[in-house]
Amino acid sequence: MFVGPYRGRHYQLPEITSFKGSERWPIGDPGLGAMADMEFTKTISIRRLAGAVTRLFTCLALVAAITWATFSLLRVNGLIASLSYVFIVLVVAAKWGLAESFVTSVAAMLCLNYFFLPPILSLTIADPQNWVALFVFLAIALTASNLSSSARQRANDAQARRNEVERLYQLSRSLMLVDTSRDLGLQIAGQVKEQFGFSAAAYCDGLTGELSMTDPSDSRCEQQTLRDIAVGTATWFVWRKESTPKGIEVIVVPVSLGGRIVGSLGAIGPVLSEPALQAIANLVGIAVERARQQVAASRMEAARQNERLRAVLLDAVAHDFTTPLTSIKGAITTVRSEYGHEPEEDDLLAVVEEEADKLSGMIDETVDMARIEPGKPRVRRRQLPVAKLIQSSVDRLKSLLDGRPLEIQIQEGIASVNADLDMMGLALRQLLGNAVKYSPPGSTIAISANQTDGTITVRVRDQGPGIPQDELESIFERFYRGSRARDSVPGTGMGLSVARDIINAHQGRLWAENRPEGGAQFSFSLRIFSEDTKP
Question: Which of these ranges, 165-174, 268-277, 303-312, 337-346, has the smallest mean pLDDT?
């Protein structure tokens, strides 16, 4: 059952069926629905017929009362009587409408002819001028009733538009307060149903195709039509279908914003004007877009806080490692310099000291990476020979590259770049370290540098398994680990992100690609040094 408006009141409808031509949409048991539908329609028809007959008899009674008062009681002339009849016609037109006022006008004309135009108490008219007066009276009565009825209809339309505007205002307020943590579609459908007195409402999201309904058991909701319009495969116009009782429609309207469809809205209930439906759809579209932006902003803020927390943790962990490592380094240096040792013991102590230096460098580099704010590294550009950049990076990674064949090809006569040695060295070391970690032991790592026009391109190639095609861009995101190496290769997922931020700060570009012969290749390009680009 559902509740709907009827002439200013509310009534409760039984389980019914909707008709359109030969189509049927049963609700509940088909036999019971059809019987209830016919009985309810019959009841409504009887009530309407009884109301119409009552109004017509009331009109005739009013004409009779005016006739008795003017003819028997007051005994006025025909002019006064005709004005009285016109007054009654206007009252009836203002109260009930054109049909009732037309019946009143005809009855008043007959009474005016019979009781006030000579010969009295006869429907015949002796004087031709009275014929003119009689038909002028009828024309005036009909015109006045038509104008009064039109004015009444315009007043009703204006009141309906006012009610729609008030409901739209309330809907806009309620949609501004939707909770993005709950089902957005169900909230939208519920607010539309509540504000406009629909018996049921539904919203279909254009991105996911998910359908949210206030009453999932109501089979009159055109679910397939909702989905077709939401995904843009159907028309953009308002879709309507008549239902029972009279004055109830099934409506589906596209929800669009900025020329693109974001969903569709369906409702079952009283007829609304086209502008009102479009306004509802626009409000829903704005609410959906606002909710999506709020969710995106919340995710961005959560990601920002997550990055900040990870950086703090990395900094704290690195600091906690530095203190004991400094003590180890000092102790090993003292033991080697102050005490004598056998050659084998001295070799072992040298390995410990070397590995401590290596670990210290790794910690310092990790701290530097953690302190680089994403997207905002500070660079101090100066003239930097490409060979110096590559050689300094290789020297810093000497222990990591030990035992690895290394090919370095630098174009003869290549120009210098306009870059920060420390920052670009850090970026290149991340690429080299990445090549070492993701390629088989003993495989060759190649570094090349070439000049094209005003750009220097440096490439780092390995012989590893390569990068999945759908991850060629995402691997540069902060803390992202490739799907092939999350469990097999240690790392934090910061190296490539830091390298990208540094190169972007130099107005350069970093990208990754898979080589046809196998392996991955990371390339970055920088502008050559010139006096114009000198800071």
Answer: 303-312
Q: Domain residues of the chain, as ranges?
A: 2-170, 179-298, 303-371, 382-527
The structure tokens listed for 289 are 């877009």
Q: Chain centroid to CA 56: how far? A: 54
Q: How far apart are alpha carbons 259 and 493 in whole angstroms?
A: 40
Complete edge-to-edge strand list for the sheet that includes strand 445-452? 406-410, 445-452, 455-461, 520-527, 509-514
Outline where DSSP puts E strands in 130-205.
Answer: 200-205
| Model confidence pLDDT, tens digit, residues 128-171 | 776 777 777 778 777 877 777 788 788 888 888 888 888 888 88
> Topology of domain 303-371, per CATH?
Helix Hairpins (1.10.287)
Condensed to tens digits (0 to 9), the pLDDT of residues 350-367 reads 888 877 877 777 777 666
- Using N-to-C axis directions, what is the helix angle for 343-371 and 274-338, rounded to 10°? 150
Tell the CATH topology of 179-298: Beta-Lactamase (3.30.450)
Q: Exposed (0-12), middle (13-18) or buried (19+): which is 440, by Cβ within 10 Å?
A: exposed
Yes or no: say if 247 and 266 are a contact pair by the CB < 8 Å rule. Answer: no
> For the segment 32-66, what is each residue's pLDDT rounded down to a tens digit?
444 444 554 566 568 778 888 898 899 899 989 99
Which class does domain 382-527 fall in?
alpha beta
Dihedrals phi, psi of 507, to nearest 5 degrees: 60, 30
Residue 179: Cβ-neighbour burial (10 angstroms; 0-12, 13-18, 19+): exposed
Task: Indicate whether 7 pLDDT > 70.
Answer: no
